[in-house]
Amino acid sequence: MAAIEHEIVERVAQFGPDKSLVGIVVNPAAPVVESDLAVVILNTGTIHRVGHHRMYVSMSRKLARAGVTVLRFDFSGLGDSSPHSSEQPLLQSNFEDIGAALDWLQTTRRIQRVVLVGLCSGADHAILYGFSDQRVVGLVLIDPYIPPTTRYFIDYFYRRLRDVRSWKDFRLHKSKLIRRIVERVLRREGGPQHLVYQGFDAQASLEKVYGVTAEAGIRLLVVCTGRHHAPRQTYREQFINAFPKVSFGASLQLEFFQDADHTFSSMKPRDELDELLARWCETTTFQRSQFQPTSKIDVADLWSA
């Protein structure tokens, strides 16, 4: 894929009920062999479809030049998309929007297989939705919610103890370290940027979701970043350690961008991320198993958004 660079075409896409959903679809200008695979990029929080630092614009163009059709769109009520007409919970509305995007790609571009890409809450949406739709064959999860592990706390506390500024904050009763401990005690882990956890055991619930995702044969590319003042992951294997009952096997590729921050504010890690996605799409065999998971509603009910 990297050896051939295609000319690309970008067009506005409108779909869903009353064409209320708006996005940008980027195609290779000429037909590509085995072109039934597309990438769909999901919103992060309330950031519209360009993403932080326009990272999804450059990502979609680079993937399209590599031969992959890419759709980035706004959930109902974000960016150029109209608010959802129903009164259903936001998470259900967003699931319907993802389904509408896949329907549109299938109808207009003959797309049969889809890779969902999301950062933070976008990753949360992707993992909660993916296993329930047979068209989803891959997930790219960038900084998904990962429950803290014992080693995470040891690493985190060690870093904070070495940080002179944290001691000054401690004297001023502003220490984030102390706040994190209190949050842990009060079971409020989850953070404002991810989907809101509603009082169930997040670790057990996510372990169930990742388990059925792996059984369904969906390929996972999990990308974590490490350059935060208060990181939610501190080492590469934290994702695996957080879900010890899941047999990911060859379905998982795990990457840790030690020097990248959560929103990829620097160009170098953004470029490296784009190259990683293009290479992963090129070299991965996407094929779901015959496993039929349970309805997404069972899992969606555990979260609000």
What does this molecule look like?
The protein has 305 residues and is α/β, with parallel strands linked by helices. The chain is built from ten helices and ten strands. The longest helix has 20 residues, at 90-109. The radius of gyration is 19 Å and the shape is globular.
List the topology elements.
Elements: E1 8-15, E2 21-28, E3 37-41, H1 55-65, E4 69-73, H2 90-109, E5 113-119, H3 121-130, E6 136-142, H4 150-162, H5 164-171, H6 176-185, E7 196-197, H7 202-215, E8 219-225, H8 238-242, E9 252-257, H9 267-283, H10 297-300, E10 303-304
Parallel strand pairs: 3-4, 3-5, 5-6, 6-8, 8-9
Antiparallel strand pairs: 1-2, 2-4, 7-10
Helix pairs in contact: 1-9
Largest sheet: 8 strands, mixed
Strand tally is 10
Number of helices: 10
Instruction: Tell me the span between the first and last alpha carbons.
Output: 37 Å
The share of residues in helices is 25-40%
Note the beta-strand portion. Answer: 15-25%
Provide the low-confidence segments as ranges. 185-192
Helix/strand order: EEEHEHEHEHHHEHEHEHHE
Write out key terms for the chains shown.
single chain, 305 residues, alpha/beta, 8-stranded mixed sheet, two-stranded antiparallel ribbon, 10 helices, globular, hydrolase, AB_hydrolase_fold, Alpha/beta fold hydrolase, Hydrolase_4
